[in-house]
Every structure is written in C-alpha cells, then in structure tokens.
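Exercise: predict the fold of this chain.
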Amino acid sequence: MSPSLCVAVGSYLNGDALQTLIESWNGTAWSVIPSPNQGISQNELYSVSCTSSTACVAVGEYFNLDETAYQTLVESWNGSAWSITSSPNAGTGSNDLGSISSSTATKCAAVGSRSDKNGFMFQTLTETWDGTVWRVVSTPRLEPNTNDFYLISSNA
C-alpha cells in the first residue's frame, strides 16, 4: 500500500450494538467504506492487512444475542466492496481474531484466542488462509497459564 492509500478498521456504537467500521485514506481525507456485519448484535474488527488496493482482509469477532459465545469474523475487500468470508471457530467457547498478516492475496495468517464454554481457559487461536478456505492451525500451549496471541507479522 502506498502512503496515500491506507485502511483502518474498528467499530462504532449504533444504538445498542457495536458495528464494523472501515475507513480508507486517499492521501487527502478519510472516508467510511460500507462494511457488512454478522447478525444484528456486536461486531468488531481489530486488524487489517492489504496486499494491494484490491486485496485486503480484516479480522475480529461478532456476538449475536441468540448465541452463547463470540465467534470469529473475517471480511475481505475485492477492490469495490467488503464481504464476510466464512471462518472456523475452535471448541465450544468464544473465539476472536485480533491480528492478521498477509504476504499475498492467497497466503494469510490470523491469530487471536479462544475460551472454553464457560469463558475460562483461554488458549491461542491461529488460522491460515490458502486462497480458498480458512483453517484452524494448532499451536503449542504453555500450561497452566492463559495463552493469548495479540499480534502477528510475516515477511513477504
């Protein structure tokens, strides 16, 4: 991405629910880019990675009032619109993706955390994208401590 083209992600409060927020910088001003939400309740994006002006991926989490746990949220940019991309969740508890790094449009890794169904025993969550599907990848766990990933970085 050039310094005149940047993308920022996050969330905003829309009534009682957080909704996704994506803005882009064109070198002069920021503008809001419409982005989808999963369901009608909480949706948050925490990180974005772009390999070109037509290939970006953002990650975060969503929660619906009729569900019992947060689930992973992945959105993809094709140069004209953001869309939700199916992503897996591990176990029966909450899952979130907090950081993403993409070396190409078909090679991405995202990290975050997951918990058991009671919201305890946090473990690392790592997922990879092969251009077609997101997959959960096992990572070592240090017992008995809580394990979370916050950031990821890769070399192209």
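Check your answer against the key: Residues 106 and 132 are 8 Å apart (CA to CA).
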